Amino acid sequence: MSAPLLALFTTSAELTGAQRLVLILPLCLSVAIIYKTTRLEDLREVPAAAAVLWVTIVLSMCAVGFGLWALFSIML
Amino acid sequence: MPMVPAPSDSAVMADVLAAPVAGLLGWLVPGLGHLYLGERTRGIVCLVTITATFWTGVAIGSVQTTVDPRDRTLWFLAQICTGGNTLVAYAWHAIVTPNPSPDRERASQAQAALVVPHWLSVDVGVHYTGVAGLLNLLVILDALSRADGGPRGGAGGSRDRPKGAP
Asked: CA-to-CA distance for B67 and B97, rounded, in angstroms?
């Protein structure tokens, strides 16, 4: 195995705060795909259902984050 | 009344063992339990998604800090649900991380105080691997349910809600 490939797993990535937030998107996509894969019997429905769930999770988390930020701003 | 042939002992044994074998295989390699039960596409989707999520987390946080049962015990309990992936990552962690001796530990603590740690990356990596483990737990439970002939939505149906339901 080539050294650069090994180094990919032995050195941590340097992330900024914004990059850290963006990385929530693929994680939510994994959750949506696995959840819908286990729930739906017809696997042809999975891509569309997972996409809808993914958007729902992301928008809901944005809404919760915005709500908490607003609450925090009002309280201080 | 037509005679129904009695199932052979080996067929009964195979039925009894289906759930534990599917669960164990699903723990060892994500999706393998479904492949064992003949759910090929479902198994491959689970295998690719969970394995990619786990190793993306290891790549972000590095193998030295992401899978660490001493420092992150609760997260390790979640990670170990991916079985084989976590065992490989932990073996790799043990190889590349030297044994802590008191002198070496003091030196590394002094060094850690001087350098800025990539704690953001490590946190993201740990979250990825932990979530991958919990997703595999869901997949294992689904395999166990299917092995026991659990609830199905019917042909082309969904377990979310029956077709035609409001």
From this structure: 11
**Chain A residue whose CA is closest to B66:** A12
Is residue A73 within 8 angstroms of chain B, CB to CB?
Answer: no
ipTM reported for the complex, 2 dp:
0.88
Question: In chain A, what residues touch B159 (CB-CB under 8 Å)?
Answer: 39-41
Candidate from B46, B55, B61 with C-beta closest to A12: B61
Give the C-alpha separation, B76 to A5, whole Å: 24
Q: Is the entire prediction scored with pTM above 0.90?
A: no
The 10 Å CB-count burial string (b at 16+, else e) for A10-41 is bebbebeeeeeeebeeebbbbbbbbbbbbbbe
pLDDT per residue of chain A (76 residues) written in tens, 0 to 9: 578 788 888 888 888 888 888 999 999 999 999 999 999 999 999 999 999 999 999 999 999 999 999 999 998 7
Domain range for A23 is: 17-75
Q: Distance (Å, rounded) from C-alpha A60 to C-alpha A75?
A: 22
**Interface contact A23-B60, CB threshold 8 A:** yes
Q: In chain A, which residues have their Cβ closer than 8 Å to the Cβ of B64?
A: 10
Mean of the per-residue pLDDT values for chain B?
80
Residue A38 at interface with chain B, using a CB cutoff of 8 Å: yes
Residues from chain B that touch A23, judged by Cβ atoms under 8 A, are 60, 124, 128
**pLDDT value, residue B29:** 95
Contact B97, A46 (CB under 8 A): no
